[in-house]
Predict the 3D structure of the following.
Amino acid sequence: MLNRMKSLGGAKLPKAILAPLSIKARWEITLLLLAFAVLVLVVITTAWLNERAQDGRDRTVALAHLSNKLGELHLYIRRAESDQRGYLLTNNQEFFDSYKQSVNSVMPRLTEIKMLHGADSQLLHAISQLQPKLKEKLEEMEEIIKLFAAGKQAGALRAVRSGQGQQLMEAIKVFFDDIQTRQSAELRAQLAHSGRLEWLLLVAELCGAVLVLGFSTLAVILLLRTNKSMRLAQQELGTAKDDLEITVAERTEQLRASNEEIQRFTYIVSHDLRAPLVNIMGFTTELENLRNDMLALSAAAKGDQPNLAANGEDAPPDKEEEALKREFDEAVGFIKTSIVKMERLIGAVLKMAREGERPLRPEPIDMTGLLQSIAAGLAHQTQEAGASIVIEPLPSITIDRLAVEQVFSNLLENAVKFLRADEPGRIQVTGKPAGRSAVFEVKDNGRGIELKDQRRIFELFRRAGPRDKPGEGIGLAYVLALLRRLGGSISADSEPGRGTVFTITLPMQWSGEEDKRASA
Amino acid sequence: MNGAVLIVMIEDDAGHARLIEKNIRRAGVNNDLVHFSDGASGLNYLFRLCREGAKRASSILILLDLNLPDMTGVEVLEKLKGEEHLKRAPVVVLTTTDDKAEIQRCYDLGCNVYITKPVDYDRFAHAIRQLGLFFSVIQVPESK
């Protein structure tokens, strides 16, 4: 097909459309896959960094919590001390209650801290050093309280003044400060670490963004290039199409011109052939009229007196004369029949030429109705032949009415003509749409057509089978010419002795454009 | 048609001319008949006839074939109907052509009768004879 297109249009189609996946395409695909892989990598990295950053944040929060808790613990112990002092000073039950509450919170809190931060060995070590001091202090405070409660205020105050409690508090404070310092350091380290992670994350995301932009740009560039090459290809296709259209227009014009010539030729020929026929026919008849005079003259030339019988009537005619008359008549007879035949053939050719000139007018046609009226028109012939015509429901098409009528009239007439002697004729017309065309079938159970004749019958003046029915072999050639004009086609399929099926294809919607251009 | 009417036949085929003449005579038409085998000579004669005046036949009837060698019968018809003195002369177009467009054209140009020559001689002879009878009853105007 490509060769045909090339020879018709002379334009070359771009190779890029036709060649299988070229190197360029392979590169492009690899590049895009690579971009995809890199982006996936970036996403994974970002997710991982995010995890780590989240861990860091969690750790920071935990550290902050710990600081908080340690602070609280320190606070409890200090409050216990100040509550104790308050009680000693004022003997107020409220101070005592508050002292009790604080004291009771200390150890549990410590235990809690130890439990939550069991993994931190440094902390545990520090706490293990703090713990006995705390215990000491609590016991010391408890003793003083007991002394006081027992009424030995002097003894309690003495214990307080001894400064042991103070020292213990100092030691505890030192421990707490230590722990806090360490915690602060750790917190700062953790924050630094988190900061770094977050910075890495930012870098990763920026990289990701840059890569996405980069690859998007690449994709857009590739797309633009593909678009451009497609547009180029489309342009070339457009040019090829235009060239093709020009060529088709030229060929149609040539066809139209040659069609016109053929029409004129046919027309002129048929008329110029008729004129001599008039003479031949006329003077042959004149000859006939002269026959008797000539024979009489020759008879008189043979003998001087006329042949008279005894009773005065003319003698029986000469045997030689009779023979001459017969031969003369026979000769003239053959001349006349040949002329009549020639006249009919010329008439047929003229009819075809005329039909080729008639402008065709498409209109929507109810085919079932049309075929039924044709069949009704053949009622006389069908009755005589003992045949029946059945018209199945047919699709409606838009086409020239007269042409289609002539096609099917011809086919049905033939079907009724060429029946079998032994079987009642049954002719059936069916049709169905097939895409943009409609396919009709005229089926009969007549005498059939030999395979070798199945194409010949469409030639002008050709017939098939025994010549027992009248006809010049014009009908099917005429039908073929009509169908050609309508953009349709016909074919015959037959089994000799069984029947024939003529398949006619016609466009569903005939616009008449091609015909107008071809015969305008 | 009175005996003074001259029949002018413009017909290029000698055979046709002869057949037509025979059958006209057989129909009993005895008027003078002249025959020309091309348009130019026919027209020349006719124009000369008009200019020469009363000495020649005062009435003319023209039998015209359309398939002439030097000009088309339609051109001859046009010229005849364009000429002041000849335009009333009845023109009978007698030709092989039966093209409907051609027939219309001839009548549009003013031909009086259009007859197609059939190949079948019986019908031909019959047609000419009918024409002859037609001649015997029509009135042909004076051509001056």
